[in-house]
């Protein structure tokens, strides 16, 4: 029997949404039994594209409550940063939460700014798609707290989207913040937002470009596929901008294998395999630049990775950076995470973009 992967992906996401609204990263992988704001926001966006508005709004309502529960913490963080003092990892807003919205304190790098920018972006998309402008007043305080947090902390080193390099500043993270603030500025009048997005782009141009393309982090010469976000979907650079085209060229040259996309050249997590969700973003970039045949190759590659139940894994290990690390991670955490909701979400997003442009 042929599985309809669109319906299956919608089913998997719906089934694994907590009644309170949180999307679990992966239900069958103990290490991922949390909700990351970044992953969840992209998942909510995917659900919006398929008219699953009740699901996406439950997620936004959950995030709203989570941020409000951190109100005093945000206010203190902003005061401390404005005073020139330093904070430790647990003093910041976390990147991930338990399903009930409670903060999880462990040694895993948890200070990430990308998720808060991404939720502002996804909320803006939700309002644009559904026309539910009343959410702006309903979530007014949580939006304001997030804006204050990002405006004051965007230049502080923090962990990247892979929970690594916490002492660095990452252009992919800055793209998330840029995209979130820029998107919400269509609905919120705050002169600080326009100045901040201008400052972020100026910083990236000055500190994150080498040989005409973006780098993994400030001071690095490496490349990372999450840099696709600088254009798609967050719009810091036009897809046809020379910096973006050069960045994509470098990603294609060093990180793409038959449309499977690696995270970065030095990656050894499960050997550094090919991530389905990254192929989704690359395909989305191809759609935006009119390279439809390449976009279709991306979606077909993702579809080929579905197992006999129609589930998508986080990464496939047929082509890895360093095979010596595969068993190390399998022995530590088990097989790669499956089903990964973010993989299913990006399949849905790319499928929608291709169908829309046909």
UniProtKB/TrEMBL annotation:
One of its GO terms (molecular function) is hydrolase activity, hydrolyzing O-glycosyl compounds. Pfam families: Glyco_hydro_15 (PF00723). It comes from the Bacteria. Gene3D superfamilies: 1.50.10.10. GO terms for biological process: carbohydrate metabolic process. Keywords: Hydrolase. InterPro entries: 6-hairpin_glycosidase_sf (IPR008928), 6hp_glycosidase-like_sf (IPR012341), GH15-like (IPR011613). This is Glycoside hydrolase. It comes from Fervidicella metallireducens AeB. The lineage of its organism: Bacteria, Bacillati, Bacillota, Clostridia, Eubacteriales.
């Amino acid at each position: 029997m042929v599985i309809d992967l669109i319906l299956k992906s919608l089913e998997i996401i719906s089934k694994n949404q907590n009644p309170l609204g949180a999307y679990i990263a992966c239900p069958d992988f103990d290490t991922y039994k949390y909700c990351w704001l970044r992953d969840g926001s992209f998942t909510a966006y995917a659900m919006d594209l398929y008219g699953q508005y009740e699901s996406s709004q439950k997620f936004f309502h959950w995030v709203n409550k989570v941020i409000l529960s951190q109100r005093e913490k945000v206010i203190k963080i902003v005061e401390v940063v404005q005073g020139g003092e330093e904070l430790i990892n647990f003093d910041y807003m976390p990147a991930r939460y338990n399903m009930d919205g409670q903060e999880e304190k462990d040694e895993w790098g948890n200070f990430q700014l990308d998720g808060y920018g991404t939720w502002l972006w996804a909320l803006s998309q939700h309002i644009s798609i559904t026309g539910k402008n009343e959410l702006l007043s309903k979530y007014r305080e949580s939006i304001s707290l997030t804006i204050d947090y990002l405006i004051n902390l965007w230049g502080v080193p923090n962990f990247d989207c892979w929970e690594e390099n916490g002492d660095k500043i990452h252009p992919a993270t800055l793209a998330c913040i840029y995209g979130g603030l820029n998107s919400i500025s269509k609905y919120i009048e705050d002169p600080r937002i326009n100045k901040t997005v201008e400052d972020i782009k100026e910083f990236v141009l000055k500190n994150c470009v080498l040989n005409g393309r973006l780098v993994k982090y400030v001071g690095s010469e490496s490349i990372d596929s999450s840099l696709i976000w600088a254009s798609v979907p967050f719009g810091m650079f036009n897809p046809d901008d020379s910096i973006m085209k050069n960045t994509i060229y470098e990603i294609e040259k060093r990180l793409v294998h038959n449309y499977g996309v690696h995270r970065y050249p030095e990656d050894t997590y499960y050997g550094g395999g090919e991530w389905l969700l990254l192929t989704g973003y690359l395909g989305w970039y191809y759609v935006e630049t009119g390279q439809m045949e390449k976009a279709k190759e991306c979606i077909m590659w993702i579809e080929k990775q579905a197992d006999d139940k129609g589930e998508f894994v986080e990464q496939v290990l047929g082509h890895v950076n360093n095979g010596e690390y595969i068993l190390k991670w399998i022995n530590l955490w088990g097989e790669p995470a499956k089903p990964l909701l973010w993989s299913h979400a990006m399949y849905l997003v790319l499928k929608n973009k291709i169908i829309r442009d046909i």
